[in-house]
Amino acid sequence: MSSALQSNFANTVFVAADHAGFVMKENIKTKLIEHGLHVVDLGAHTLDPLDDYTDAVRPVGDQLIADPAARAVVFCGSGQGEGIVLNRRRGVRAAVFYGPRAAIQPIELEHTSPSVDGYDPVRLARMHNDANALCIGARFTTEEEAYHAALLFVGTPFSGTERHVRRIHNIDE
Fold it and tell me: The domain that contains 42 carries what CATH number?
């Protein structure tokens, strides 16, 4: 990881999971801490096959609203339901990751930039949308892919360009 990327890491990273993402969360959490990040585990703290993802992610939304500089990485079966719950909260912008996939068209309209790697959706969620939560579909993503995506997500800055700021403001209206 480049030093420029490391200097952009979020101060706090909240992690959470339901039963489908519990094991992945525990393993990735350890790696993020070993990487030197301040990680706050919002649960689940035990594996419960009957838990509800809604209960797992509501505290994440609360914490992101209270700490706008923080990021969250949520591990669940598909990530879709978690993204829906989080995106209902004003000020929370969640993106879903299913594993690397290369773009099939140029990424920027202003340029003809090709896909850098299969993690462009994660990078662009931060750069263009200032996403503050990443929902990882644990049933679709390897642990190595999830760890790479989590590091990239918490270390990529928002571009701050006028058009992206305007769009984010429009989301919250």
Answer: 3.40.1400.10
